[in-house]
Design brief:
alpha/beta, Spore Coat Polysaccharide Biosynthesis Protein SpsA, Chain A, single chain, about 15% strand
Length: about 220
């Protein structure tokens, strides 16, 4: 399985969250998401690959991964080109099926990842739809499908455009339950409430870095 991750550099991550708070706060959130996601995915019983960006951040991610993930720099290009290159490299290395996630869903149930691998026993593509109109997980089996080109990445029609590119009726698609990404201040507020609800229900979110930030008040933009 793969994890797409970006080094949490001030001013270069979580720009929509930064617009409602500050670049410093957004970078702290991005780093918390990254660290918790790495820890959570370590429990997945699969070969794990951390595809990182930028290419010169290898030392940072090596220290973070601590040999629990193989490290691979992302290629150049837009998000779709980089994802397609990731899947192509996995298949060239003999992997039959793999899934890819990012760091924007810090409470993603790990059983969804296991379910994705199960779905790929019968399907060629599996998608985890995100509530913002994109997807939080994509998985492929056998080959790279034609779903990564010509997509308006970051827009609410990503999922719809992706499905439209699966025009071959012989290509079997499987779906996971919807989940949410955290990109904006409103998303952050919803995440804080969700973490509190999980704790109240006696469920450990397994996101200690994010929970630590959830206990503080984010700054107001321009403040």
């Amino acid at each position: 399985m793969g994890l797409f991750a970006k080094r949490p550099v001030l001013g270069q991550v979580k720009t929509r969250l930064a617009a409602g708070t500050s670049a410093e706060w957004a970078a702290r959130v991005a780093e918390a998401f990254l660290r918790d996601t790495v820890e959570r995915l370590t429990s997945i019983d699969a070969e794990r690959v951390l595809a990182f960006s930028p290419r010169d951040a290898g030392a940072f991610f090596a220290d973070l991964a601590q040999w629990r993930f193989a490290l691979q720099p992302q290629t150049a290009g837009d998000l779709g080109q980089r994802m397609a290159a990731f899947f192509a490299a996995q298949f060239e290395n003999g992997v039959r099926a793999t899934v890819l996630v990012g760091t924007d869903s810090p409470t993603l149930p790990l059983e969804f990842v296991d379910q994705a691998f199960d779905r790929l026993e019968e399907a060629e593509v599996v998608l985890g739809p995100a509530t913002d109109g994109g997807y939080y997980l994509v998985g492929c089996a056998g080959r790279v499908p034609p779903i990564f080109e010509g997509i308006a990445w970051g827009e609410s029609r990503v999922l719809a455009e992706t499905i439209a590119r699966l025009s071959d009726p012989a290509c079997r698609l499987a779906m996971l339950p919807p989940w949410y990404d955290v990109d904006t201040l409103d998303d952050w507020r919803m995440l804080v409430g969700h973490l509190a609800a999980l704790r109240r229900a006696g469920i450990d979110p397994r996101a200690p870095n994010v929970e630590a930030l959830a206990g503080t008040r984010p700054p107001e933009a321009g403040g």
